[in-house]
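Researcher: Please predict.
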Amino acid sequence: MLRVAALATVAIVAGVVGLATLSGGPPGPATVAPATVAPATVAPATVAVASDVGRRALAAAQSQVGTPYVFGAARPGVGFDCSGLVWWAYREVGVVLPRVTFDQVHAGVPVALDELAPGDLVFTRGGDPPTDFGHVSLYAGDGIVVMAPHTGDVVRRQRLDLALVQAARRIGA
């Protein structure tokens, strides 16, 4: 299996991010300082080109449309949360990603919104504070994402709300 290395730089595609890193300091409780962020860029050779692994992961995720949302779950036909769907879909094609959104946002390479390709991970606001990376979905193309939205809903395709996007990452580029 291909293991995706976590990167320290986070792509900011829209808005300001509340991502933070622990900083050094005197003994005692850790202090939190803002993370250094870089603009989302992709090498020209990879612009708007979906990785083969991304397309295959997207197909795996789409096979689960209709499966219930279950917080903390990643079981086909039983239930998924948002990061569990991403984790499972990529694992199905031989890529091991971190399990939770806050770690998945460091995987792969940054990609700008106008360069999104099928299988790219799209991170949106969805937690507390409202600028965090509380939600992840897989880009399907034509402004559509595949997602496990929330309790009481099912894995589904829906239009991407660009106003909520915080970052996007390409896996296997």
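Model: The chain has one domain: 2-170.
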